[in-house]
Amino acid sequence: MSQLSRQLSWSHFVLLLALKEPMQRDYYAQMAGTERWSVRTLRERINSMLYERTALSKKPEETIAQELATQRAQLQIEQRQPDRKLLIE
């Protein structure tokens, strides 16, 4: 959650807290952080029922949790690696 608090604003969290299902909330939080969605984009994705339309929502909860954990780990690895463009310059 600390990673998300750096990537998302208070307005993002207000939208996320209104979601009833924890997996749905986690999905949108991870996607908003990874894809750098604005609050407007997050609201549009929630209203368009993106989570419900994806195959991910039709999988058992354990699978969803595992995929979200994998995505979090990948994001942490990417954040630890220095930007190659900066190293070249």
State mean pLDDT (0 to 100 scale): 81
- Alpha-carbon distance between the two ends: 33 Å
Q: Please summarize the sheet with the most strands.
A: none
Query: Over all CA atoms, what is the radius of gyration?
Result: 14 Å
Q: Categorize the overall geometry.
A: globular
Secondary-structure element series? HHHHHHH
Total count of helical runs of at least 4 residues = 7
Describe, in plain words, how this protein is organized in 3D:
By secondary structure, the chain is mainly alpha-helical. It has one domain. Helices cover 74% and strands 0% of the residues. It contains seven helices and no strands. Helix 2 runs antiparallel to helix 3. The termini are far apart.
Characteristics of this structure?
0% strand; mainly alpha; globular; single chain; 89 residues
Gist of the model:
This protein is an all-alpha fold and 89 residues long. The chain has helices at 2-7, 10-17, 22-35, 39-47, 50-53, 61-80, 84-88. It has one domain.
Question: Topology of this structure?
Answer:
Blueprint: H1 2-7, H2 10-17, H3 22-35, H4 39-47, H5 50-53, H6 61-80, H7 84-88
